Structures are given as structure tokens and as C-alpha cells.
Amino acid sequence: MDATFTFTVNGQEKTVTTDRQRSLLEVLREEFHLTGAKYGCGEGRCGACSVLMNGRRVLSCLTSVADADQKAITTIEGLAQGSSLHPVQEAFVEEGAMQCGYCTSGMIIAAAALLERNPEPTDEEIVAEMNVNLCRCNGYTKILQAVRRAAKKMRR
Amino acid sequence: MVEETLNETIETERAGMSAEAGCEIELSRRRLLQLLGAGLLITVTDRVSVGQRGSRDGQSMPVAARLHLNTDGTFTVMTGKVEEGQGARAQLTQAAAEELQVSADRVHLVMADTALVPDDGITAGSRSTPYTVPAVRRGAATARELLKQLAAQEWQVDASTLEVRDGTITHGTAKRTMRYADLAKARDVADAFKQSISSDVTVMSVEQWDVLGTSVPRPNWRDLATGTHRYPSDVVRPNMLYGRVLRTPSYGATLNSIDLSPAEAMEDVIVLHDDQFVGCAAPTSLRAAQAVEAVAKTASWKTVAHPSSRELSSHLKKNARTGGRSRPRIRGSVEKGLAEADKVLRATYEAAYIQHTPMEPRAAVAEWKDDNLTVWAGVDWPQRAQRDLARVFDMPGERIRVIVPDMGGGFGGKHTAEAAEEAARLAKAAGCPVSVRWTRAEEFTWAYFRPAGVIECEAGLDDRGRITAWDFATINPGGAAMDTPYAIANTRVASISTDAPLQQGAYRCLGATVNNFARESFMDELAAAAGTDPLTFRLAHLENPRIRTVLEAAARHFDWPGRRKKVTAEVGVGLACGTEKNSVVAACVEVTIDRRNGQISVNEVCEAFECGPIQNPANLTSQVQGCIVMGLGGALKEAIEFENGKILNASFAGYRPPRFRDVPKIDVHLIDNRAIPSAGGGETPIIAIAPAIGNAVFAATGVRLRSMPMRGRSLGQA
Fold first, then answer.
1. Residue B51 pLDDT
2. Local structure of B585: helix, strand or coil
3. Which end of chain B has fewer CB atoms at under 10 Å, N or C?
4. Can you give the residue range of the structural domain that contains B83?
5. Per-residue pLDDT reduced to its tens digit, B651-662
6. In this structure, is residue B307 part of a structural domain?
7. Per-residue pLDDT band at B172 (split at 50, 70, 90)
8. Residues 58-97, chain A: which have Cβ within 8 Å of B?
9. Four-point Cα dihedral B176, B182, B185, B189, nearest 10
């Protein structure tokens, strides 16, 4: 059943009238053509669809559009400030922590949320937060290095 | 048809070279200018032709089919290879830049677009490095020589007196210089680039490399990090609909009848029923899924019997062709060798079906315009997808354009173009572009799998601990890494086909992941039977100097002798080595076994790898690290379970690839062997992991795990 929802996406107010069963992921991708958040499993077990909702990481494939009503959503497209990358994005590029890159937006969103909450995470804390994020190129080693590097950058 | 394609896939993989030449596509100058953007481009070709394959066959291809010099002095280089995370985009950019003597940022690579690029064969089998890199280098080197000739004509000097450095041609004695950009304005480069690529043009020697051999980053990393790169599943076209296809409820089921009216009654939904194909397209993915669900409820199916994964090994053995050995490779006499043996060992190894699970499932967007079809798809060979589509729609290939945007992983799993065909069918019916993106459950069920296998091994040992005979029969995985690299007088190896219950095809190093597991585990059994250290035992049978080098390197960095002495009932160390696709690998691992529940944890992997001269060290490191972790999955956790024609664990809830928590300490040692040509490095580093883990478990527990994935339940007896 269709209903109207209003939320901000990357700072812009958006209104959409659509089936309330649709996932936030589907609405971001198909209504707003913000395709940075990816479909990887549809069951909340790969993290590729991660976005920030009121500053916290959510799995947008399991979040209904109705749950996003009146919330502030940030996707990977909204993380950089103009042409300057977010420190987590910078760190991923500098470490080369990407192979196919399909998991990357979810990894970066997850790391950005973690570092916002906990600027000096231990490796165990990073792993605990990021374990839901799957990378099939299995680039975990460099991703972990990138998150450590980002933490240092953000403390500066 | 699907099975045929998959068989071809495996054969292609086994053959180590693409099976067929691509077709040639006529392309007008005007068309190419439209596609690449006028103004940028000054040279064009009148045809796009066969690259990798053609070069190997000595067929000529004009320089212009491979590259263009733009008026700003940059180059546009074209290749049929796809980028799926393995690093071909950076590496092929480097290859061209090296020969053109420019920095990598002056080369723009156009990949995998049938309207623009030569057919470089399938992206598989680690072939981009040994075949496509040289093909691109020959093209770029020919271009460099032609540009020198044009400068020589301009200056009325001998071309051999000219040098090129950093995009500038210099005539030393006359102290004259000319930039490529100036040359592009002064001379008819387009005309010069009509000449064929020379097969014997001089390319830069490894000692001269200054772009190759360095860690050039992937040119579009920033787009990946900002979410702006459009993967196949992200492509959006005007008025595009989202498509979903009705799948059969089980393997081999056929549709008896279906009532389409529930979907037809839905607003804005297009329904297509063509024989066994039923699909719906709608303005949203949810609506398309609901429409398919609605008609699925009305479908009646004829199902067929299908074996279960519980009886997989017996099924593979029972159906092995010709009662055993199809075309074994024999050296000496296994019977004689066994007769001379002091001890004879026999063992049977097994491996489950596993899935590639690339992060991006199959996806394609199709668009018809004036009877021409354009498809954006995640496939490993755009020209083959083009041929497949031409067959399905009974139309000439020239009217089909397949574009492969850099895609979200493959690992050998995206040789087939199912989503492209489905999207094209639905787009034709809908009269507007359609995007078909497989769900994870579809990818788990309807993509093909790495073959399961049963391997029967028998070997004899003499009283001095030498192997006298080696008999190795591998049922179903195929022949990759089937031959033993050890010096044994009497050997017999055979790859045996059987009735494969699931669709199977290529994988990262394909059957080598299974065959190397069996061989290196069985070697460990022989070492134990001989009472010899596994490293000493291998070295005593190993003449191949490259394998010896990596094995000794891994053992040294890991401190094998020291660590071996510290083995306990809970902590074990193991090693394994191997060769495939002209590269060599060895790994040492340490595992901990929880004796309460049999849980195996890998603490550390130390791997040495050599694939000739290293072309991009950072990318190769990523590939080796990725192979190591992917290897953990097949070794310990991944297995497709099926029953009554249904996949029982078609989700990440039931099928468990490695995650952050599973990553051990990883220590990679790359050996830069400059005495041979470069080989690919994205596959072979996976093959030593599983056997090294099994051997480490044995070292700690005395229990030999012979079935992949190795589940430690039997170890939890304490």
C-alpha cells in the first residue's frame, strides 16, 4: 500500500510516495538513483547496503522505507565534502583497500560510523563492528589497515 | 545449451587458452568518434578485430584497433578484458604506458565494449598477464616506433637516432624535441596507425621497466570509494523497468501450465511467457518480485529425481565414465613401482561443491533501439555474450553491443550471460530498457558451481622413504594441477568425468583447489608413513627449482623447523606447495584445534609465491592475500547442500564465506623472478591453503581430514 514519506538524503529533503514494504535500499537506488549502497544479499549478512541513519549505520536492505520516515540518511555519495574525501575514503584509497570495490561503500560507511562513535578502536573492536561486512575479494587485511589509518587521520 | 557453455568453459580453462576467435565488427569512423567523443580522438580504425587470439595466431591487427593518440598527447587504449577486481585495468594501463614511454596517467583504458575494443578472449585462467599484457605491449611498442618514424620524417633524420622519454621524442645530436601532442597535430598519425601491429617489435626489457613493476593504483579507485562508479547492477537508463524471472522450484523441473492473469492484473506490470521462460518487468523491483510471486502460485511443474549432497561422493564414483580411467597420463609403470614398494598407501579425498559468491550477483540492463540491442552486463567475455545473444534473438552480432562496466567480482563464476539474455527478452517485450539483477538466492542456485570431486590416491614407499609409484585419479574436478610436480619414476594420473549433479564451471584455479588438496595431503601421509619431516620429504622428491625456492622461502620465513618442534595436541603446523598456470606457491600454516568441539582456527599463514617478474607489487599482494582468505572458506566452511533438486543453503545464513573474524595473521612473500616471462597471479596462491591446514591438523591430532570442507567434528572427542 502506498504512503508518503519524507526524509533527508545527504542533506537534501526528499519526499516519496511508494509502497511501504519497499526497502530503503530499493528506494535510494530506484527512486533517487543513488546506487552507491549495494544489494549483496538482501538478508543483512553482507553489509554492502550500509548507510547512515541519524548517524548510525543501518543495513538498508532490512530497513523499510517507512522506518526511514523523518530520518536523516547519509549514503556513500554524501560522505565527501565537495571534492575532499572523508578521511575513511582517503584511507581506503591510500591503502588500496579495494579490489572489485563492490563492498567498499558499505565498508567505508561502517568504518565511518564506528570511528565517529569510537575514535580509537582496538583491532578487536574494528573486527566486531565490521564482521557483518563481507568482502569476497577477501581484501580484509588491507581494509583493516585502512580503518586503522583512518582512525589516525581523524584524531589529527 | 547452458551445459554446453559450461563444458566449454571448463575446457577453455583446461586448455589454458581461449577456444575460439572472436568475430570482427565493422565500425565506421563516424561511429567510433561518436562513441569515444569527437575531438579527443585523432586516429581511428575501420574495423575492430581479434586481439589476444589473433596475435597468437599471427593474424595482423592495425595499431588503431588497439590504441589512439589524442590531440593532448594522451592515449586511449582498448582491450576486451574486463575488470572485476583482479587489477587488469591498472596492469594493462601500465603495459601500454611502459611501451609508449609515458606515465600511467596519460593512458586511458577502454575495456570490454564490443563496439570499441578488440576481442582479447575471455577474462579467465590467469591469461591477461601472459597473453593480453604482451599483446597490448606489442601494440603500444609498434605505435611508439611509428611515432618515431613520423618525427624522423619531419626532421629528415634516421628514426633509429631518436629516443622517446616521458612522451617526448628527442633527436640527440640535433638537440631537437617533439612531444607526442605536437606530433599529433603535425602529422597524419591516423594514417600511420592503420599499419599492423608488429609481432617482433622490441618491447622494453624487465631491466628497463619503469611503469611496469611499480604499484600503479587502479585508475578509478576514487569512483569506487565515493560510490559513483556504476557497476552493471547500477546502470540506469531512461524509462527503465526492473525485471524478475520465474525460476523452477527444483533442478530439471519443467513448466506444465501457468496462469498469468494475477500479474497481468497488476498496474504497470509487463508479463512475458515464452515456452519455459516466464518473467515480469515493473517500475520497481518490489512490484516485479510481487508479480512473479503471484504467477508462481498458479504454476504447475513436472519435476525429476535429483541426487542429494549427502550421497554426492558415491554418486560421482558410481557414475564415473568408462569404469575409471579416461586417458590417463602414464610414466613408467605404476604396477612395477607398487611391486617394488615396502609400504603401499591408499586414500580417498573428497571436495564439496562451492559457490563463487561474488559480491555483485549477475546483473544486466538491456535496451533495444531500432532493432539494435545494447546490453550492460557483468560477464567475463563481452564478445561471447554478444554471440550468445545473437543466437538467442536470431540477429547479426553487429547489431548487438555488449558493455561490461567494471564489475563486482567473478572468480571464474561469470562466464555465462544469463542475466543479459533475460534482460534482453524482457526489454523486447516491454519496449523499454529493463534491468535484471539476480538475487543472492538466484546466484546461489542458478549460477554454476566449482566442481565437487572424489580423488583416489595410491602410492608406494621403499624402505629408504622414496616414493616408488604414484597413482592419482580425480573424478570430476578436471585436470588443473593434477600432475605431480615431484620426481617419481612411475606415475599414472587421470581426470575422470562423471555425472555432475549440479551445473559446474570455472573457479579461482578451478580443479587445482581440489587436486592440490588431495595431492599435498597425500604427500603428507606418505611423509608420516616414511617417518620423515614433511618439508624434508618434499624437498627430497622435488627437482623443480621454482617450487623448491618458494617452499624453502615459506619454510624459512615461518621458521618451520622451530615451529614443528613446538607442535602440541591443540596447536599444529602444516605446509603445502604446488604449481599451476606457470606460477608456483608454498604455504606454511599454524592452526589451533579446540578439542572440546573440534573447531579449527587458522592462526597464521605464511605464503611464498612466484609468477615471474612482478608487474604490480601492490596489486599482486592484494591478489595473494585474497586467495589465502578465499582458500580458508573452501578449506573449512563452504559447501553447497542440496536435496530433491533444491539448494538447501542458498543464503549467507547457511553458506559461510570467510569474514573479518576468520582472517589469520598473513605473511606474504613475493619472489620477483626476472628470468622468465610474467605469469598471472590471481589464482594459484589459493591452492596451497587447504592442504596446509589439513596437514597442520594432522600434525596436532594425528587425525587426517580427507574431505573439504574439513570439519573438525571428529576431533572434538576430548
1. 52
2. strand
3. N
4. 2-225
5. 999 999 999 999
6. no
7. confident
8. 75-77, 79-80, 85, 89, 92-93, 96
9. 80
What is the homologous superfamily of the domain A2-75 according to CATH? Beta-grasp domain (3.10.20.30)
- The answer to whether position B706 is within a domain reads yes
Cross-strand partners of B300: B257
Taking CA atoms, A153 is separated from A19, A87, B122, in Å, by 42, 6, 41
Contact state of A89 with B225 under an 8 Å Cβ cutoff: yes
Q: pLDDT per residue over A115-146, tens digit each?
A: 999 999 999 999 999 999 999 999 999 999 99
ipTM: 0.98
* Contact residues, chain A, for B408 at CB < 8 Å: 38, 100-102
Q: How far apart are the CA of B410 and the nearest CA of chain A, in angstroms?
A: 9
Q: Using alpha carbons, select from A141, A99, A131, A100 the residue that is nearest to residue B607.
A: A141
Q: What is the CA radius of gyration of chain A?
A: 15
Relative to beta strand B168-171, strand A56-59 is: unpaired
Closest CA to B682 of B638, B619, B635, B608: B619
- ∠ CA B181-B187-B189, rounded to 5°: 80
Residue B546's region, left for phi above 0, alpha for psi from -120 to 50, else beta, is: alpha
Q: Which H, E and C letters describe B433-461, residue by residue?
A: CEEEECCHHHHHHHCCEECCEEEEEEEEE
Report residue B395 CA to chain centroid gap.
Answer: 30
Residue B17 lies in a domain: yes
Are B224 and A41 inside 8 Å of each other by CB? no
SS3 content of chain B, % helix, strand, coil (to 5): 35, 25, 40
